[in-house]
């Protein structure tokens, strides 16, 4: 129902109330917006929000599916204790790049353009790819 949707998406609780009972590791992961090994379903819900119902109709299931962008999905897997496992962390580490490495890629791309080694069109396309994969 609309009321259920509203209750899943919005809260009047502050961070401390919302994360009561969670570990410090889970709270840190929530603040950074990443999934780490050992997170509870509650922590994942707070960090990522509820997964789309058509892809994950039952939150009691062990696989939740999220869309990262229009082309990429991310499966969050839970073990028998309803905790995330190391396979989720590995996936996130591959996807996450530091701000410095992303900046380095943009600067390298710009240098190629400035030296005339790539065209403006090639630069624009590659820049769009980098932005989409962030």
Fold and architecture overview:
The chain is mostly helical and 134 residues long. The chain folds into two domains: 2-95, no CATH class; 99-132. The protein has helices spanning 2-9, 15-18, 24-32, 41-48, 86-95, 99-114, 120-132; strands at residues 63-67, 73-77. The protein has a two-stranded antiparallel ribbon. It starts with a helix and ends with a helix.
- Calculate Rg over CA atoms: 19 Å
Question: Could you tell me how far the N terminus lies from the C terminus, measured between alpha carbons in angstroms?
Answer: 33 Å
Overall pLDDT level: 85
Largest sheet: 2 strands, antiparallel
- With strands numbered from the N-terminus, the spatial order across the biggest sheet is 1-2
Measured by DSSP, the beta-strand proportion falls in 5-15%
H-E order: HHHHEEHHH
Number of strands: 2
The coarse silhouette is: elongated
Question: Considering DSSP H and I runs of 4 or more, what fraction of the residues is helical?
Answer: 40-55%
The assigned structural class equals: mainly alpha
| Count of helix runs | 7
Number of domain units: 2
Spans with pLDDT under 50 lasting ≥5 residues?
90-95
Concise summary:
This protein is mostly helical and 134 residues long. The protein is built from seven helices and two strands. It has two domains: 94 residues, no CATH class; 34 residues.
Give keywords.
about 130 residues; mainly alpha; 2 domains; two-stranded antiparallel ribbon; 7 helices
Task: Give the topology.
Layout: H1 2-9, H2 15-18, H3 24-32, H4 41-48, E1 63-67, E2 73-77, H5 86-95, H6 99-114, H7 120-132
Antiparallel strand pairs: 1-2
Helix pairs in contact: 3-4, 6-7
């Amino acid at each position: 129902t609309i009321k259920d949707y509203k209750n899943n998406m919005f809260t009047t609780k502050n961070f401390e109330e919302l994360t009561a009972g969670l570990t410090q590791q889970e709270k840190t992961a929530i603040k950074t917006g990443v999934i780490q090994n050992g997170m509870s379903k509650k922590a994942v819900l707070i960090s990522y929000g509820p997964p789309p119902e058509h892809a994950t109709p039952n939150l009691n299931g062990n696989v939740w599916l999220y869309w990262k962008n229009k082309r990429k999905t991310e499966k969050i897997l839970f073990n028998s204790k309803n905790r995330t496992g190391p396979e989720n962390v590995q996936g996130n580490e591959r996807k996450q790049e530091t701000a410095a490495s992303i900046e380095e890629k943009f600067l390298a791309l710009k240098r190629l353009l400035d030296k005339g080694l790539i065209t403006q069109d090639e630069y624009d396309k590659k820049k769009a790819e980098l932005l989409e994969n962030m």
